[in-house]
Structures are given as C-alpha cells and as structure tokens.
Amino acid sequence: MEILVCVKRVPDPAENEIELNSAGNDIEQDDLVYSVNEWDNYAVEEAIQIVDKVGGSVTVVSVGDEDAEEVVRREMAMGADKGLLLSDDAFENSDGKGIASILKAAVAKGSYDLIFTGALADDGAAQIGGMLAAMLDWPYASLVNVIKADDSKTIKVGREIEGGNQEMNEIDLPCVLSIQTGINEPRYVGIRGIRKVASVEIPQLGAAELGIDPDTVGAKGAKVKRVDYFIPELGEGAEILEGSTDEIVEELVERLKAKGGIK
Amino acid sequence: MSELYIYVTHKDGAPDDSASELIAAARKINPDASVTAIVAGSGDGADTVCQTVAASGATVFKIANEALAYPNAEIVRNMLVNILPSDAIILIPHDTFGMDLGPGLSIKLDAAFVSDVIDFEGLEGTDLKIIRQEFSGQVYTHVLCDISAGAVLNIRPGAFKADENQIAEGQIIDKSGDAGDLTARRRFLEVVEAEAGEVDITAEDVLISVGRGIEDEDNMEIIFDLAKEMGGEVSCSRPIVDAKWLEKARQVGTSGQTVKPKVYLALGISGSFQHLGGLKGAPFVVAVNKNANAPIFQAADVGVVADILDFIPELTEKISELN
Ligand SMILES: Cc1cc2nc3c(=O)[nH]c(=O)nc-3n(C[C@H](O)[C@H](O)[C@H](O)COP(=O)(O)OP(=O)(O)OC[C@H]3O[C@@H](n4cnc5c(N)ncnc54)[C@H](O)[C@@H]3O)c2cc1C
Ligand SMILES: Cc1cc2nc3c(=O)[nH]c(=O)nc-3n(C[C@H](O)[C@H](O)[C@H](O)COP(=O)(O)OP(=O)(O)OC[C@H]3O[C@@H](n4cnc5c(N)ncnc54)[C@H](O)[C@@H]3O)c2cc1C
After folding, report:
1. Domains in chain B, please, with CATH?
2. Of A103, A202, B44, B247, whose CB neighbour count within 10 A is largest?
3. Hey, which residues does A10 pair with through a beta bridge?
4. Predicted confidence pLDDT, tens digits, chain A (263 residues)
C-alpha cells in the first residue's frame, strides 16, 4: 500500500494564545510557536500502522515555505519513509482550492493507493481532503476513525458522525480519507528520532516541476480571499470575578450554592 | 444574483434544525431571494419533510430515490451536480455530513467554497463578504468570496436564528427524474451506535467538565476531587477522550453527549462550537481559563481568569471546609 499523508504547519494551539497585532488587522505573528497540525499526527500514525501490516511505504507532503520542511522531518521521525515539500512564491496566499490543486499535482507525480489528510486544521475549514478527492475523481470519506485495510481493492472505514456514532462504509481504492483525532495514539517523537532523519534529503518541488500554471494558484487563483482578522464587539459575555484568589473562591462558592451547584 | 439553494438534512420524517437556520442564512445573503430547499430521500418520511419545509416558505425540490435513503455524500453530490444551475449558491450545514459533501461538491460545480460560515455582511461587487473564525474561535476573519460562478457555503449549526416570520407556503416540485446516476464508490454499510459508559452524564445536574488545559493525566485527580466535594460528575472535552484519559461516554459535544445540567463548570476548555453544541438547556456556566480571550468566556455566566492547576485545589478546599 502506497500512502501519501498531507501535513500542515500551524501555530501550536498548546503554545500560543492567538491575538491581534497592534494595527488590529492581522494576528500577532511574532513569537508564534509552530508545530504540525494535531490531526496530521494521527494520519501519519495510521499510515505507518497500515504499512507495517500490509507492506508499502508512507510519504509525507506539505505545501509551505522552507519552514514547513521541519514538520515534514518531524513526521519522518515518526517513521514515514519519504518526505516532499511543495514550495514556490506563486503558492503564497492560496485558498483551499489552490492548496488542493498543488497537492493534486504532486499526487500525479507518484503512484498512491491511499491519501490521508487531517479532518481539520487551524483555519477550521475541513476542506482539503474533499477537494483533493474530487479533483482526482477518487472516492472520499471524511472524519475517519477506523480503517480496516488488507490487500484487497476495497477497504472498510468508519466515519465519526453526530453523537459519537460510527458510520461504517466500504470504499474503493484508490481513495482519499480525512482522519479524525482519536483514531489511534500517535507515537512519541524523541530527540533521537529527529536526529536520525536530520540529514535526510527532502525533495522540494515548485510550480514549474509540478506543471502548475502560477496564475491558477496563490492570490491570483483564489476565489476566496481572506481580508483581515478582527475581534468583534462581543456581547456581554461572562462576568469575570476579580480580586485575590481567596476572594474569588469565596464569591464563586456563593454563586455555585445559589445555583444548586454544591450539593 | 445567483439563485439560492439550501440542502435539507432530515431524520425520521423531520427536518434537522439546520433547515430553518439555512433559510435564515440565505435570507441574510439576499432578503428578496426566493430560496429553494433540496430534500433528498425515499419513502413517506421524505414526503413529510418536503411538506414541513414547504410550509416554512421555501420552494422544495423533492428528489426521491431508494439510493438516497441514507445520505451518502458521493451520491448526493452526483445528484446535486445534475440538479443545480451552474451559478447556484448552495448552503449546507457544517456538520459531519456537510463536511463530507461541501468541499468536493464545490470542485465538481467549479464554484467557490467557504466553510464554517457564521455571518454575512453583504455584497461587494461579485464578492460576498463572509465572517468566519480561525484558531478555534480565538479570532474572527472577513473573507471575500467570488460568487460569480456559484458557491458552496457550509454554515455553522446554530449561527443563524431561524426566521419566525410566516411566509406563503412554498411549492413542492418533484425533480427525481433529473437526479442522474446514483451509484457510488463508497457504499454505506451500517451505523454502529456509541457504547454506553459507566456514567450517564446526560442525567446529571452538576457537571465538572475538564479540557486540554489540565495538561497531564496525573492532574485529572484535582477534577475528580472537586466533583466529589460538589456532588457532581466529571465530563470533558474531546482531547481528553482522544488522549484516553477518560471514556468516550464522558465527552460533551456534537460528537459526544448532549447534556442539560443546571450547573456546568468548564475548566481549561476553550469553547469550540463542537463542544458547546453539546451543552443545552441554558445551564449556569462557570469558566476557568488562563486565557482572558478564550471564547468560552462568551458562553459563560461567570468567569475566572486563572491557572486551573492552582485554582481548582483552592476551590475544592473551600467547598470541603463548608461540607
Ligand atoms: C499568509 C496566508 C494567506 C492566506 N490567504 C488566504 C486567502 O486569501 N484565502 C483563503 O481562502 N485562504 C487563505 N489562506 C489559508 C490557506 O489557503 C490554507 O492553508 C488552506 O485553506 C488550507 O488549510 P485549511 O486549514 O483550510 O485546511 P483544512 O482543510 O482544514 O485542513 C485539513 C487537512 O488538509 C491538509 N492540508 C491543509 N493545508 C495543507 C498544506 N499547506 N500542505 C499540506 N497539507 C495541507 C492537512 O492534511 C490538514 O490536516 C492563507 C494562508 C496563509 C498562511
Ligand atoms: C467533527 C468534529 C467533532 C468534534 N466534536 C467535539 C465534541 O463533541 N466535543 C469537543 O469537546 N470537541 C469536539 N471537537 C473538537 C473541537 O473542535 C476542539 O478541538 C475541542 O473542543 C478543544 O478542546 P479543549 O477546549 O479542551 O482544548 P483547547 O481548544 O486546546 O483549549 C484548551 C484551553 O485551556 C486553556 N488552558 C490551558 N492551560 C490552562 C491552565 N493551566 N489553566 C487554565 N486554562 C488553561 C487554554 O487557554 C485553552 O483555552 C470536534 C471536532 C471536529 C472536527
């Protein structure tokens, strides 16, 4: 089984509080700590487990600038066999469709049975997997939380649907799956793992190598343009309790008692 | 302007709440537009849904076919590509079905795609101005979406309030004959229901809910200590279940349980819409979070900006003194 896993470099939600810059139109970029999108670790882990069982190889791909190489390398340290970086000035400010079409061009350069994306990334769009599948005209399943693969031409996948129920499907290969968190327990990557892949060559492909017309991607190709970031005048919101910890605790206990929160 | 369509999901003969929200969202795009609702399904249930939606003032396209009895996104997509005019704007709920359908549909229609839309701010030329959030709701963004060749818009559940104004009843038009080839390379097998857990958080009046802010499995103890003193039960956000620190039956949210407590403590929980989607019945919500800008404070009645690892033991101690 040849598996391609798409990974995105994102500001680490555990390390950053996202705030507006002083001009109030963009997020404060300084001091942001980046990592690989949480969902993508599950996708890479799943790919490695499948290949361990049925054979084949795992390739990790990211669209981004030079910095994205570090997340590709991290996923290789998990055990992915190959890495690929898709990078070009023309790719900057792509919308979701742009990113998906760049990935599609990379898929055409290889021969894959399965493509994984994460279900969701920092933009909260949950779009790349479904777009890529439709561009390739491959079947697709989103929010996958179980995969039963052997060496046949169809596999079984479970999709997580409302209420934590699971929708079981049979799907023909090749296909694209977006992976939901919780499908497995992604392995820990230690310093030693990172060191092992530190000098591995990660091929980098641009628009020309991928055969992409630069006008169809990036800002030029985007039908969807992000204009600014902002924080609206929000409604009242919570009454924030102020004072020393003792005072706050005392006040909160009173409120909880009044509402029946302390039995 | 392009014609506006909504996709109605339904179950057991009743449209999902999203149907009336999507109609409201469509009217926010264009108050004068007629809205066409697409109802696909089979049998009497689907007929009842058509009538209910028509009564709310939308024109209904009914697509009845055995193959649509269970909503398989690939089949629905094929059908929509055949039914929709080329520059249509179609609104879909941003739920587990909409996430499956929307992105691929936009490619097949060669239309723009924007997901998790929470509001519209009118047109600028051929661009629709859309509001959405990024970074789990920590910041908002304006997005301009070129709708000249149509658009697929996935709308966040609960973001638009259903319009109560009674409008003349809509017509039901049977489009079943235009649906085209309804086979798929992904075939639905069955739905496996979530397992019941050792606790039933849906029956609890007081829930002490813990999120990723707890940082480490060893810290979970402070949450159970507090729950014990308060006489409530422990629930959680999804990452706690993903990490296998608590069982799935304790997860609150769209992919977990829907709870209706009287009092809800959100401890180290950011307040994503998927989490809040499981919190019903207008409980008294207390949020403790170290980030003063965390979206949870918008949903809470009372907030404390603090590190839960320090604050919770203090609170527990105070309550235990009282007990
Ligand atoms: C400077 C900047 C400007 C931008 N401007 C715009 C804009 O004007 N309009 C607009 O619509 N968007 C814009 N974007 C967003 C950008 O296009 C997103 O990266 C894209 O929409 C895909 O990310 P997502 O979070 O939407 O993906 P989702 O669909 O939510 O992510 C799901 C999965 O898709 C895969 N994936 C996502 N991104 C990548 C990637 N880069 N490489 C490999 N795999 C990936 C991963 O597997 C991920 O888990 C901008 C981004 C940046 C950094
Ligand atoms: C299809 C789908 C379905 C989903 N279903 C659900 C669902 O049913 N339920 C659900 O919960 N999620 C669900 N999610 C996930 C959801 O999008 C969020 O990722 C999740 O709710 C975030 O959980 P959290 O608030 O615990 O973590 P985070 O968003 O990481 O927030 C942690 C919060 O803790 C705060 N914090 C950190 N450390 C401390 C500290 N020491 N003291 C105080 N505060 C601290 C941070 O400021 C932050 O606000 C779903 C996602 C998808 C895509």
Report:
1. 4-178 (3.40.50.620), 201-322 (3.40.50.1220)
2. A103
3. A35
4. 999 999 999 999 888 888 889 888 889 988 899 999 999 999 999 999 999 999 999 999 999 999 999 999 999 999 999 999 999 999 999 999 999 999 999 999 999 999 999 999 998 899 999 999 999 999 999 999 999 998 789 999 999 999 889 999 999 999 999 999 999 999 999 888 889 999 999 999 999 999 999 999 999 999 999 999 998 877 778 999 999 999 999 999 999 999 998 87
Ramachandran assignment for A100, one of left (phi > 0), alpha (psi -120 to 50 degrees), beta (any other): alpha
In angstroms, rounded to a whole number, what is the distance separating the alpha carbons of residues B275 and B1?
Answer: 36
Nearest to B287 by CA among B273, B301, B307: B301
DSSP sequence for B177-205: GG------SEEEEEEEPPPP-SS-GGG-S
Q: In which residue are the tokens 């206990």 written?
A: A253
Chain B residues 273-312 within an 8 A CB cutoff of chain A: 284-287, 291-293, 297-306, 310-311
Helix residue spans in chain B (DSSP H)? 18-29, 43-55, 73-83, 96-109, 220-230, 238-242, 273-276, 296-299, 308-322
Compute the distance between CA of residue B114 and CA of residue B84 in angstroms, rounded to an integer: 18
Q: How far apart are CA A81 and CA A119, in angstroms?
A: 22
Give contacts of A 104-143 with B, CB under 8 A.
119, 122-131, 133-135, 138-143
pTM of the predicted protein model: 0.95
Nearest alpha carbon to residue B143 among A125, A216, A132, A119: A125
Q: What contacts 24+ positions apart, CB below 8 Å, involve A230-234?
A: A230/A20, A230/A24, A230/A25, A230/B139, A230/B140, A230/B141, A230/B142, A231/A20, A231/B139, A231/B140, A231/B293, A232/B140, A234/B298
Of B99, B127, B145, the CB nearest to A142: B99
ipTM associated with this complex: 0.95
Residue A183: its H or E element: none
How far apart CA A197 and CA B58 sit, in angstroms, is 59
3-state secondary structure (DSSP) of residue B300: coil
Read off φ and ψ for residue A39, nearest 5 degrees: -60, -35
Mutate to test the pocket of ligand 1, among A123, A143, A227, A228 (most ligand atoms within 8 A of CB): A123
Is residue B199 less than 8 Å (CB to CB) from chain A?
no
Asked if A101 and A76 count as a contact pair (C-beta separation under 8 A), the reply is no
Contact B35/B59 with Cβ under 8 angstroms?
A: yes
Single-letter residue type at A124:
G
Q: Which two tokens stand for residue A62?
A: 């990211």
Domain annotation for chain A: domains and CATH numbers: 2-221 (3.40.50.620)
Residue B7 CA from chain centroid, whole number: 14
C-alpha–C-alpha distance, residues B300 and B287, integer Å:
6
Q: In sequence order, what DSSP letters do the residues of B233-259 get, joined into one string? A: EEEE-HHHHHTTSS-GGGBBSTTSB-B
